[in-house]
Amino acid sequence: MIDFPYRGSGPYCYAHSLAMMLGAEAPGIEVLETVTGSPFGMQLVGGSLPFFDAFGWDPDIGIGEALDVLGWSADTFSDEDPDDAFARLVEGLSDGPVMIGPVEMGHLRYQPGMTGPIGADHFLVVLAADSESVTVHDPQGYPYARLPHAEFTAAWRAETVAYGKPHTMRTNFVRHTVVADEAAIVASLPRAIGRLGGENEAGLPPGSLGNADAALALAARIGSRCDPDLRGLLVHFGVRVGARRLTDAATCLRRVGHDGAAAILTTQARLVGSLQYDLVTEDDTRAADTLRALAPTYEELRRALTAS
Which pairs from 146-149 meet CB under 8 Å and 24+ separation? Predict the structure, then answer.
């Protein structure tokens, strides 16, 4: 099997939004995704929602951690009142683009098929806003997309998103320390080791599982008959983003000499990526077997990172 970095489109909304905000000084997207901490683990939130990302992690956490290790800071605001939040957004736009999120993707009706909330989080960069509409760069593939004011406000409220606060925005991105990509990658690894060891469970819904336990529980669920909603989440989002971030993390760890950990990440990427065909064609027995093969690799990865 050829070990080769991936390039292409995919659901990297917060990483691409962050890259837009950091501008010419942004590291490569594979570095940004890796230093958010997302690739290092798996979680079954509330015992039902599977994500191939770190246990106890979410994009809000990851954005903060990425800025920290990269030597950047940003001002983050959230507000329960939509009118106050929108006024702050307009004020922030006077100094340049504003990063928004999480938002409820189902309210972004410029995306085909979106007609209402679907419980999917998303991140955007807002370029302009007035009482009639908002113009955004949507990293899902929609530059300069226009959204009516009411629909933007509904999306930004993020009522159906499982984390974060309503009307969250990030402005005033400032680079206070020049940090090499390699140094940032290394600085992100202690948190990765902790999450692979089961830390950061506090605050998760009851019944949440991480890493090997999550993989085995998901295997049991899929093997006993994968329900349509679960299959849809995995084939349209979970597998795609999971395999990509694992591939990117492997590339980054090779850059800093963690070849053993990188090899395990590549194995994980191949296993997760192979789920796509089996889940789409409903070969659930094979998909469950793949998840059972994935389960022990999380402890293997933790040991490899600890020993390096």
Answer: 146/110, 147/108, 147/109, 147/110, 149/86
Which residues does 261 contact at the CB level (< 8 Å), separation at least 6? 253, 301, 304, 305, 308
Q: Which two tokens mark 133?
A: 């509409």
Per-residue pLDDT of the chain (308 residues; tens, 9 = 90+): 677 777 778 889 999 999 999 999 999 999 999 999 999 999 999 989 999 999 999 999 999 999 999 999 999 999 989 999 999 999 999 999 999 999 999 999 999 999 999 999 999 999 999 999 999 999 999 999 999 999 999 999 999 998 999 999 999 999 999 999 999 999 999 999 999 998 766 678 889 999 999 999 999 999 988 899 999 999 999 999 999 999 999 999 999 999 999 999 999 999 999 999 999 999 999 999 999 999 999 999 999 999 97
Question: Helix %, strand %, coil % for the chain, to 5?
Answer: 50, 15, 35
Tokens of 112: 């085909």
Token code pair at residue 11: 């659901």
Q: Which two tokens stand for residue 48?
A: 């039902």
User: Which pTM does this prediction carry?
Assistant: 0.94
**End-to-end distance of the chain based on CA atoms, in angstroms?**
25
Contact status, residue 208 vs residue 261, Cβ threshold 8 Å = no
